[in-house]
Write a structure and sequence with these properties.
single chain, 3 helices, flat, about 60 residues, mainly alpha
């Protein structure tokens, strides 16, 4: 079984990243898989921010 607390903590840390942080991670990636992973995280975080903005503007 995986350590749920460990991954929950990782999620919380990743959620704190900003666009500059994810760009730095992408640029300094050692492998293509790592680069793809950080790009997906950047995309996810951007989508979450867009969703928040849309929700704020519709209320």
């Amino acid at each position: 079984m995986c350590d749920v607390k460990k991954y929950s903590d990782i999620y919380k840390e990743i959620s704190k990243l900003n666009a500059q942080d994810t760009l730095q991670l992408v640029l300094e990636s050692e492998t293509e898989d790592e680069k793809d992973f950080y790009e997906m995280i950047g995309d996810y975080l951007l989508q979450k921010k867009q969703q928040e903005v849309l929700e704020r503007n519709t209320n």
